[in-house]
Amino acid sequence: MVVFLLRRLMQTAGVLLAVSLVVFLGLYAIGNPAEILLPDDATAAEREVAIRALGLDRPIWVQYGVFLKNALTGDLGTSFVYNTPSIELILQRFPATLELAIAALLIAIVLGIPLGLYAGLKPGSRADRTIVTGSILGFSLPNFWQGLMLILVFSIGLGWLPSSGRGELGTIFGVRTSFATWDGISHLILPATNLALFKLALVIRLTRAQVRETMPLDFVKFARAKGLSPMRIVGLHVGKTIAAPIITVIGMELGSVIAFAVITESIFAWPGMGKLIIDSINKLDRPVVAAYLLVITFLFIMINFVVDVLYTVLDPRVRLGGRT
After folding, report:
1. How do residues 88-128 score in pLDDT, each as one tens digit?
2. What angle separates helix 286-314 from helix 239-259, to the nearest 10 degrees?
3. Exposed (0-12), middle (13-18) or buried (19+): which is 277, by Cβ within 10 Å?
């Protein structure tokens, strides 16, 4: 376990260093933020003062060295636009994005696993064909179009749910969240559903495939021969076998849901990190973009670590050191 943790720590440092270098070079290549931040009628003297104040007059390797030195102390730079520490801006919006991601994954898990399980147990039936067709639609339809249709039907047409913004927050165990009030939940339903549709289709297809692979195996036949009930066979033996790959995929998808909620947050004006990163890219706010990408990378690494640990709990044949 100690070796595994040390190895992961070294991998994390290496990945973050590589990402920081790639991100820094990429942002430098895009252009000079001063050209966007300053008004068109700014004089050459004003432009020079602004460039010097932002530290953009120094060579790129000097800028990168300063960035790395500050990053070691947790300082990922100050936003050019908001004049606020970039990590503070991201952490202010992180709860909204995390809340949206959790709601989306809950929808995908609560609906996707039972539907995939049923389809896998009834292959070729009308229900199986209907579920598979629905999952194909979830994969095929563009995310932005799904979001617009949800707004058109449930907000404009039926008037059941709000189409934008984050509703009233309440407190659960000392945490401010939308889950604590009906207004917050009603604002969360449409963006969470929009974000969940692709993941729902993925969970359905994965669960169905795992069930179909597992049901013909010998241990299932043996359980039937022992006279165990179908519910016990599926719930205990089959469920335990298919849990590990499903948890692995869902864990990885949590990272992608957080990182790629940009489109959904833009469509529903959800005040999360995705909207912040779009605004920051438009204004070439380098510190915020760099901090966002490093935070997302670190988040992916942590989720991978948790998934690896859960995998060993569910399948004792797998060891954290990599030997089976």
Report:
1. 888 888 889 889 989 998 999 999 999 999 998 888 889 88
2. 180
3. buried
